[in-house]
C-alpha cells in the first residue's frame, strides 16, 4: 500500500481547503451560508449545558450502581422481562465499572477487554427499546437509536454505520469526551441477516457488508467526526485552527461505546426448534417450559445465528444475549395500571388538558388488555385499542359541559352508543354551554368591529338547536352565518350612527336576506 493510501482523507481535504481559501475571508463565506464558524467567532458555550455535561462525566467517573439497583429502577417502567432486566443490569454495571477503572488508571485501557455488547431478541412491543431508554436515562449517558434497515454497505441516502457515532456526538451536544461513553441502540438487526438466496447463488452481499461495517464499530476504531460529505463541518474545524481557537478533535474512539442490537427474529424460533427436536436422544424430551415458538429464542446459540444469516465475526461481537418474553393480557393490564410510563397516564393527561377527568373501570381495563393481546403487537397495541375506543369522546367532549368521563366495558365494546347516551344525559347543561358561546361570539364581534349584536332569547335558542342538529360549534356556526355582517353593519352605522343591532330568529334563519333589507331600509330613509 502506498503512503498516499495511508493518508487521512480528512487531513487531505483540510489541506486542499486551506490552499483554496488562503486569500479568502472565510468568515464571509460562513455568513453567506448562514452558519457560525467554531473557534474565535463561535457563539459562547451555554454554561448550563457545560455544567450538565460535567455532572454526567462525574457520574461516569464515580459510577457505583449495583445490578439490583438498576433492576429495581427498570421495574418501575417495564413489566415482566425479569431475565432481560437481570442480564442488562449486570452487563451495564460491568461495562461502566470498567470505564470508571480506565478513567482512574489509563493503563487498564491498554489491556484487552471483551466489551459486553448486547443482543436482545423478542417479538415487537415487549419493551426492548424501552429498557434501553430507561437505562440510558438512569445513567445519563448520550443515547442514539436507529433502525438497521436504514443502512447499506455503501450508505443509504447519506447514511452509513459511522453516522451513528457522529449522531452520538450530536446527542452529547458536541462533547466528544462524553459521547465516547454513550450507548448506541440498533433495532431491527434481524433485517440485515444475509439470508441464503433461493437460487443457490450464495448469501445476500448487501446484508453481509452492513454487518462488517457495524462489526468495525463494535470492536474499537476511530471514527472521523466529519464525514467526507460534510464540507461545512470541515470548514468550521479549519476556521477554528486558523483563528487560534480551541483545537477540535477530529475523531472519536468507540472503545467505550456500548452497542445494543435487537430484533424480533421471527424465523429464529423455527430454526432452534428444529435443532432441539433433532438432537433428542432416546426418551429425552424438549424443555417442558416452552409455551410457544418465542420461548425457543431463549435457547438460541451462536450456530443458530450463523444459520439465520449472521457472520460469525459479527455475532461474536455480541456476547451478551437475552430473549424477551411475549406479553399476555395480564401483563398488559399491569402495564396500564402499574408502569410509570403507562399510555393510560398519557390519555388521562390528554383529557385533563380539556378540563376532563378520565376514569377507566377495572372491567374496561381487562377488555382493553384482552383486545390488545389479540392485536399481537405487545404493549404498542394498547394505544391502538385506547385510541379506537376514546377517539370520539376526545373529539366531542372538549366542546361540551362534561367535566368527568367514566369508561366501562360497555363503552369499550360500543363507544358511539356510550357517547350518545352521555351527551343525552348532559343535554340541559350542554344547552347552557352553547348559549354562553353565543354571548362570547357577540363580545368578540363588539371588540373587533365596535358594533354590538343583541341576540334575543329566541335567537339564542335557534342557534343552539341548529348547533345540536348539525353537530357544529356555536363559534363556527356564527362565523359562517354572520361572516359578512360587519361590512353591512359598518355601512349602516356610518349612515345612521347606529351601533347596536338586534338579532332575531329570522336573522339567524336567513342572515343575508335580513342584512340586505336593513341596508335598503337605511337608504330609503335617507331619500325620504
Please give a quick description of this structure:
The chain has 528 residues and is α/β, with parallel strands linked by helices. The chain is built from 27 helices and eleven strands. Residues 1-5, 29-44, 154-158 and 196-203 have low confidence and may be disordered.
Please provide a written account of the structure:
By secondary structure, the protein is α/β, with parallel strands linked by helices. It folds into three domains: 46-220 and 255-323, Rossmann fold, CATH 3.40.50.300; 329-425, Helicase, Ruva Protein, domain 3; 429-527, no CATH class. 56% of the residues lie in helices and 9% in strands. It is built from 27 helices and eleven strands. The strands form four sheets. Strands 2-3-6-1-7 form a five-stranded parallel β-sheet, with helices on both faces. It has a two-stranded antiparallel sheet with strand order 4-5. A two-stranded parallel sheet has the order 8-9. Helix 17 packs parallel to helix 19 (380-396). The radius of gyration is 33 Å and the shape is elongated. Residues 1-5, 29-44, 154-158 and 196-203 have low confidence and may be disordered.
